[in-house]
Design brief:
Blueprint (H helix, E strand, L loop, with lengths): L27 H12 L3 E5 L6 E3 L14 E5 L2 E12 L5 E13 L3 E2 L1 E5 L12 E6 L12 E6 L2
Parallel strand pairs: 2-6
Antiparallel strand pairs: 1-2, 1-3, 4-5, 4-8, 5-7, 8-9
Amino acid sequence: MSLERPRLPHEIRHWFGDMECDYVYTLGIAGEKFYAGLKEGRIIGSKCPSCGAIWVPPSLYCPECFEETSEWVEVPDEGTVYTFTVAYVGPDGEPLEEPEVYALIVLDGANGGLLHKLGEVRPEEAYIGMRVKAVWAPEGERKGAITDIKYFRPVE
């Protein structure tokens, strides 16, 4: 294989061997704030200076009015189930021993929502409009990931 650089793009037909790609993936400004908050046991949203909407997960621009958001606010870890589904098969395609419930949760005072697992509830007990609260991983086990919230449980 020649190390000479091709001068004409149409001369390149195939690349044999490995092609190394060095890159750094970042979560972006809003993502970094959100996941850093989770590590501290807080849910962070972004507030629009124009319409006042608070977005979770946070966004640098308001999806409603397209204003740049610059204020970060903590939102409660309680909310409402907007919709849900019951999984009977795992990500590997194998049947689960127990079905799992996943929900889109709209947090109190916020727009948008978090897609997360429901716990401490049987599938037949889950319903749209159900009030739920985050169950956090112990402080020393948090990594700044969505799994820092173990699941959301029903609020009585």
